[in-house]
Amino acid sequence: MSASVGARVTRQSGTNFYYAFRTLPEEKRRAIYALYAFCRVVDDCVDEEGGEGEAGLARWLGELHRAYAGRPETELGRELAETVARFPIPRACFEDVVAGCRMDLTTSRYATPADLRVYCERVASAVGLASIEIFGYDDPRTRAYATELGLALQLTNILRDVAGDASRDRLYLPLEDLARFGVTEGEVLAAARDPRVPRPPGLPPLLAFEA
């Protein structure tokens, strides 16, 4: 039996998710691969060179709606339709992921931690809330845990990717926090883009605070 498109996209992502998900029962494995693949292709619309941007986001959002209506037009859409028919994943989880990726097309700075949290909850917490419907849970507090875990993981990604984001003129560290540590936006971007640039004294404590 050939691998599903969800499994192929997950395996090609270069992460260890593909192997971790292989431990799940087949039905859940196919579903989590489809969820991951949807998030991957949507993210690629805004992050990859040659990505389709808003047109790609609109196309995949349309396919998502068709999947929920039982009328998908793509192989991945058919796997999504199978997933949402078997597991009670709120449509809003997928829509939030698309909305979060759209923010990367329009927003490159966040003034406050509260502003950044909106972004993190859309691109990461929403994925957690979808995932727990596949994994299964009994305690309703699991939803709050998934939200906070998604936030923590996305903040970790932000700290890891400061340099890569700077190359796209994106800065996710809240400007309010930069001001607290006496660091300017320009200083962070310059240090991230060129390791030969002296780091401002406030940058290490800023990053430690975010961590």
Structural commentary:
The protein is mainly α. It is built from twelve helices and no strands. It has helices at residues 5-12, 17-21, 26-47, 53-68, 75-86, 91-106, 113-135, 141-160, 162-166, 175-180, 185-193, 203-210. Helix 3 packs antiparallel against helix 4 (53-68) and helix 3 packs across helix 5. The longest helix has 23 residues, at 113-135. It is elongated and about 55 Å long. The termini are far apart. The model has no long low-confidence stretch (mean pLDDT 94).
In a few lines, what is going on in this structure?
This protein is 71% helix and 0% strand.
How would you describe this structure in keywords?
single chain, 211 residues, 12 helices, mainly alpha
Number of strands: 0
Main pleated sheet = none
Q: Decide which structural class fits the backbone.
A: mainly alpha
Q: Beta-strand percentage?
A: under 5%
SSE layout and pairings?
Elements: H1 5-12, H2 17-21, H3 26-47, H4 53-68, H5 75-86, H6 91-106, H7 113-135, H8 141-160, H9 162-166, H10 175-180, H11 185-193, H12 203-210
Helix pairs in contact: 1-3, 3-4, 3-5, 3-6, 3-7, 4-5, 4-6, 6-7, 7-8
